[in-house]
Amino acid sequence: MTSLTKAPPKRFIMLSLLLRWEWLLVLLIIVACFVNASLSRYFLDVDNLFDMTFNFMEKSLVALPMTFIIISGNIDLSVASNLAMSAVIMATAFQSGLNIWLAVLLGLCIGTIGGLINGLLVSRLRLPALAVTLGTYALYRGVAFVLLGDLVVKGFPDSFIYIGQGNVLNTPVPVPLLLFSVMAVVFGLVLHRTAFGRLIYAIGNNEEACRYSGVAVNRIKVIIFALSGFMSALAGVIMTARFGSVRPNIAAGLELDVITAVVLGGVDIFGGQGSILGVVLALFLMGITRFGMSLKNVPGQVQSTLIGFLLILAILLPQLLRRFALRSRG
Amino acid sequence: MDGEIRSEPILKLVGIRKAFDGTQALAGVDFELCPGEIHALVGENGAGKSTLIKVITGVHRPDAGEILFRGEPVVITNPLDAQRLGIAAIYQEPTLFPDLDIAENIFMGHYPLRRFTRRVAWRQLYDQAARTLRVLGMDLDPRTRVRGLTVAQLQMVEIAKALSFNARILIMDEPTSTLTLSEVAELFSTARQLRDAGTAIIFISHRLEEVFGLADRVTVLRDGHYVGTCNVSEVTPDELIRMMVGRTLNDLFPKSDVKQGSVVLRVEGLTKEGVFRDISFELHQGEILGLAGLAGARRTDVAQAIFGVAPADRGKIWVDGQQVAIRHPKEALALGIAYVPENRQQHGLILPMNITHNVTLPILQQFARMGGWLDSRAEAQTAQEITTRLDVRAAGLWQLASALSGGNQQKVVLAKWLTTRPRILILDEPTRGIDVGTKAAVHELMSTLASQGMAILMISSELPEILGMSDRILVMNEGRLVNQFTRAEATQEKIMLAATGSSSA
Question: 3.30.70, 3.10.50, 1.10.3470, 2.70.98: which CATH number matches A52-292+300-314?
Answer without folding.
Answer: 1.10.3470
